[in-house]
Write a structure and sequence with these properties.
heterodimer; A: 181 residues; mainly alpha; 77% helix; 0% strand; B: 202 residues; elongated
Chain lengths: 181, 202
């Protein structure tokens, strides 16, 4: 029987020099990091870039982790920040027209989802999510897909519970309306 | 969004209290129209929920850690090479500055002055020796050997300019500066984004 070690235990062991504990943390959270970034950015290449950036940040900053929040909300916070930054960066580049068509083709051509049915669903989802303002998209993804509580989302985004609920329902309403079209 | 819609969504996502749910169910029993609306939303919500379960190629996830380890090793290696080349170029800059210092001053076409406040104090002392200040172009090569953070801080200074000038610096022909976006850390990027947003060009 495999006994799963607690996050705090893994962090402590990693800080004592046990590299395998870091690997275990990565194994535990890599899917969550990828899918959050993927839903935020809407494509595989950007998500992949964010995954690697987030892992580097975790590796560097884990020594400063104060256990004031759970490891996964901390990781979500890093992933969210990185995703938002990348989206902003893309917006700036798009504004100055330097995100060329060739890059777009590569971006959308390469993917880890090959099943046609899943791919269609994902395209549909990306289309709907892109219509949400980016902050609302973040809240919607954290609540609907990651199924985090409002309290956890509040820790990640720094927003009030009331504001989060209002934003979530506005987003949900928009998404459902879009899906019905 | 009207209150009825909010109530339906709250009901379907279990966000109403027990009493509120009961009262809402009573409302549904009394109104066929409301019941139909709830059913239609429920259908859409179920369809949306299936999108949670999309799976990707497992091989990608298996390779995440090995790729990370490789990137980390490359970063560590790059950092040590970077330190060495910084030390080397530091000496070169020092020698150049000493020789320039012998001359009476800089050429008159150095019109565009740039403050290098974000470069480390030691480097700045040498770079600004004898009151000299350098243009971006003059030190472009030296930049390549300066720590990435120091460089990006310098660029953020450059980019914190009035809206009219932003277009001069940041345009598709000036890919050198555009490329620096990739080198900004989160805080710097936020500052830049904020300053660009404030100019209402985004």
């Amino acid at each position: 029987m495999v006994i799963e070690r607690k996050d705090s235990e893994l962090i402590e062991n990693f800080l004592k020099g046990d590299q395998s504990s870091f690997k275990e943390i990565v194994e535990r959270y890599k899917d969550k990091i990828y899918w959050h970034a993927r839903r935020m950015t809407g494509n595989h290449l950007d998500a992949d870039e964010i995954v690697q950036e987030v892992l580097i940040v975790i590796f560097k900053k884990l020594k400063d982790f104060r256990f004031q929040s759970s490891l996964y909300t901390w990781i979500y916070k890093i992933t969210s920040t990185r995703s938002l930054n990348l989206i902003k960066k893309r917006n700036i580049k798009r504004f100055f027209s330097i995100d060329d068509d060739e890059h777009k083709e590569i971006k959308y051509g390469e993917d880890i989802v090959s099943n046609i049915e899943n791919k269609e669903k994902l395209v549909q989802l990306d289309g709907v999510l892109k219509k949400l303002p980016v902050k609302q998209r973040e809240i919607f993804i954290l609540r609907h897909f990651e199924q985090l509580s409002y309290e956890e989302i509040s820790k990640i985004t720094g927003k009030s519970l009331g504001g989060l609920k209002a934003n979530y329902f506005h987003a949900l309403n928009k998404v459902l309306d879009e899906m019905g079209e | 969004m009207d209150n009825k819609k909010i109530k339906i969504l709250q009901y379907l996502t279990d966000e109403l209290s027990v009493e509120e749910s009961k009262s809402f169910e009573q409302e549904m029993n009394d109104s066929a129209e409301l019941k139909m609306l709830v059913e239609s939303y429920n259908k859409k919500l179920s369809s949306l929920s299936t999108l949670r379960n999309i799976k990707g190629d497992e091989r990608y996830f298996v390779n995440i850690f090995p790729i990370f380890s490789q990137k980390l090793a490359e970063k560590v290696q790059k950092l040590s090479i970077g330190n060495l080349s910084f030390a080397f170029s530091f000496v070169v800059v020092l020698l150049i500055l000493v020789s320039i210092g012998i001359k009476s001053g800089l050429d008159s076409d150095f019109q565009e002055r740039v403050s290098f406040a974000s470069i480390s104090d030691d480097a700045m002392n040498y770079l600004n020796m004898n009151g000299n200040k350098f243009t971006l172009n003059d030190l472009q090569l030296e930049f390549e050997s300066i720590d990435e953070n120091e460089m990006s801080e310098t660029f953020i200074q450059l980019l914190k300019i009035e809206s009219k000038e932003i277009h001069n610096y940041v345009n598709p022909d000036n890919l050198e500066i555009i490329g620096t976006f990739d080198k900004l850390n989160s805080e710097e990027f936020d500052n830049l984004y904020k300053s660009l947003s404030e100019t209402k060009i985004l």
